[in-house]
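Retro notes (design track)

What went well: tokenization of the new backbones is finally stable.
What didn't: we kept losing track of which sequence belonged to which structure.
Fix going forward: every design gets posted as structure first, then sequence, in one message. First example under the new rule, 204 residues:
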């Protein structure tokens, strides 16, 4: 199964709501499918009911009130990096999963949003100020710098997903593939910074 990294714009106000109530993350990462939110809410409710039962000896009410989650202009704009996300992270940080902020934002940026699995683990939320810092850092990154950091041998050794780095560049331009998505990523982050919104990052 492929692993695809997605970024979704979100206002600081709505991000604060999501961080306080993690099932709401589905209202951002999959706003057109209420069943995912409902399932996460039911699972959270089951945990709360179990705690209530342990404390008071009887189940809590199973009925969950409807939640309004209005989206402002600029929410939710979404981009996916296909399978290029890990190669981009490596070129930005020189690491498989770590790196220094703010350029490690794809793998480490922001705050983990509870324990709601949105694919491969929970999503992470970044505030508008954090997005602004990323945008400023990305502004200084150009193709020449990334090409200098592109190291197929090390990327293969570090098991950088999706493991295409040892292919013949004449037949499979993996650097060009990463650059195509990096260009889209940088433009997306710049727009988010201009709008003053944050991001939710998910790996699905």
């Amino acid at each position: 199964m492929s692993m695809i990294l997605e970024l979704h714009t979100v206002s600081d106000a709505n991000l604060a709501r999501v961080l306080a109530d993690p099932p709401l993350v589905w209202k951002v990462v999959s706003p057109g499918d209420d069943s995912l939110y409902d399932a996460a809410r039911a699972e959270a409710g089951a945990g709360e009911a179990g705690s209530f039962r342990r404390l008071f000896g009887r189940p809590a009410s199973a009925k969950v009130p409807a939640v309004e989650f209005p989206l402002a202009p600029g929410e939710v704009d979404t981009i996916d990096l296909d399978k290029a996300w890990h190669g981009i992270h490596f070129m930005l940080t020189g690491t498989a999963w770590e790196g220094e902020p703010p350029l490690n934002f794809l793998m480490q940026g922001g705050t983990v949003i509870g324990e709601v699995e949105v694919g491969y683990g929970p999503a992470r939320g970044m505030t508008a100020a954090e997005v602004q810092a990323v945008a400023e850092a990305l502004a200084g990154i150009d193709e020449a710098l990334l090409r200098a950091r592109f190291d197929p041998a090390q990327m293969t050794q570090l098991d950088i997903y999706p493991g295409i780095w040892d292919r013949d560049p004449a037949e499979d331009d993996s650097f060009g593939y990463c650059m195509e998505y990096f260009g889209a990523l940088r433009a997306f982050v710049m727009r988010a910074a201009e709008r003053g919104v944050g991001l939710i990052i998910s790996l699905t």
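Added context from the reviewer: The mean pLDDT is 92.
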